[in-house]
Amino acid sequence: MIKLKKTYLLLAFVLGLSGFAVAQSAAKPDIPLVRVYFHEKIDSTQKLIRKLDGKNDEFFKPADNDDLNNRLDKALTERVDSIQDAIESSKITDNNDKIRYLRGLNEALQRFYIGFKYQTVKSPVLLEVVSGYKNCMVLDQKKQSIFPEIKKHSYDAGDILVNAYAFNDNEGLQASKDFLTLKVCHEHPDRMMTILSKNPDFPYTDSLIVVAAHTRPDDLYTYAAAYNKFAERIRNSSDSLVQLIVRISKMPTGRMFFPFLDNLSNNKISFDEVETALKDDEKYYSLLVKTEIDYADRVRRRDTPLSIIALRRKLADKASEVYVNVINGLHESPDNIRFRKIVNLSPQELYYLAVMTEDVIYTSSYTHGVYPFIWKKMKTGKGGDSLLLSVKFDYFRKWVKMAANYNTLDDFLKRMDKGNAQILMKAFVNGLEKSATLEDAVDVADSYASINDKAIQSLVLNQVQNNLQQSKQTANKKAEDIYDILNTLFLSIDSSNHIDLSEKLGIPPIYFMPNKDMRDAKGRIIIQQFFYGDEDGRTFFPMFVNSFRNGNWKMQSNNQWVTISSTKGVPVTIYTNKPLDEKQGLDAQAQGALNQYLYDNDLNPTMVIHRGHSYWLPSTLDQLSDSARLVMLGSCGAYQNLSKVLQICPTAQIISSKQTGAGNINQPMINTIIDELRQGKDLNWPVMWKRFGVLFNHGDLFNDYVPPYRNLGAVFIMAYQKEVMNEED
């Protein structure tokens, strides 16, 4: 309305009029000067919202959907203006009431502005807020409750409306707030305890405490141990399960008992039995495994046990703490010494060591220890069928994925009857949409390229295509999105299909990296390389430095890092820390000092290289710059960490190794990539990978390296996130 106001204020001045109500147009109501300020505040908020789409124009179009954009812009302009007009032309005689509605409208818009700016509400909420405010205002003018209107809207829109100043005295305000509290507790059970702790006198608190005991027992346990009014409400509950949780929360070792909550509540296990197991880490781990298998069998029968999340967390912790960290730490010792700790474990206990420690188990701990030890312990036949049956197929997708990534899948499937192996691989790709996260789907995507048996590969592809057709027939959009992306990814593996994943999936290029995208605002390409101070680092660091001793490069060095800069072509600078003594933590200090130097000098790496064993990789990822466009993980087992990289750099291209990263592969590959960048060339991955294949004779070590366009798990994540964003818009 700002343009109209300016026009008529100017007209008023020209006509020499004063002390009158400013007319906006012949068809619009007069606005007394006493209320102009409140209209201008609304206009100002409208302008702020318009800017949220990042476009310097007079429209609000934050989505990729033209129809939605048009409706949003119309709501923000025409419909908000019409509410202002309605307030002015209404039969309300009290000036304060009109100000109250104008102020409330501005508050509602401001709350949307803040929510959308900080990504706590989505753009379509604006449509609800504008229409809802108008309807609530009509009800309020009639002295009627706004509750019927609030019930129609989403929580986000309703929360904005009930907090608008205009409805502070409405008779339906408290009922509306109570309804929204129940609504958010139902829609976001993870927030229920936080909400109730802030509103302990909420009318439905006691009922929701019982609900939480059955659905969020971990959260209830945390709050029950506190000393406040809400904790008192929990402790005073008459529900038997709530009282059991309260009892455990009071115990000094309550967290160690909590994984067994379901069996304790059903008298399948006693407190004394858990207490006895707690005296020995190995017995406690065995009890956790036994309970997990019991719970997994119930889950298979669609009966979700209480505290299963706590059980799995504790199982993962103990698997790492008691066993895997030990055998990882002895990686330089002979196998008979290194794996002594796991000699007495059962096949099932070894199975859970693998699937519960995917992110921490070393490649050699899996391939030389856990995996072969399972088969030494199996007493029946081939063993593959028996193993999965004995654990009730718990985490079987994770098991198959890890076997594929560590090149043991073919061996595992050969340990099963052929028919059962086919059934297993079909199950591997079925029901992916039922998982609350994308982890299962990413596991399937990651595994496909590692399946060497063509018959199994074909079976998996056919099952994905069958599931895609079924999802279309049943209008299951989530399933359709998942299987459509997987189908595209798997077909792209065969070059004869001529599928461009970037074009097909609408994601950033993965077949090439434009040289210009690697440059910063000053035209420089900044590369950071992480070395570690173990024997490997000290061996390969001089080789790396010496490979740049030619006329194309110059070097500078200080006590902690080396700087290598191009003298010809594109300005490329490589910063690499020295592999100082890792036992004294000097390598970590050097990396920290280099990170600080890069930050202080506005040097943002667009290529990051990890050099070292897989056990150093978490340290590199902790320091990974979000400016990275190309990340090279030439380390053992690095293929397991793609999702971590993408959390930091959502569109990064990744080169990784599925298993053993080798120095004699890393160095020539790094030199070739960097020199292509120096010459101003784009990185054409299919062409370069073909060249690398010839250079390394397509050996086993090279074949474990995965180029960006074959990192199917990473591509799946990017494609699915893009699809979800499009649907939300």
Automatic annotation (TrEMBL):
Keywords: Signal. Residues 1-23 form the signal peptide. This is CHAT domain-containing protein.
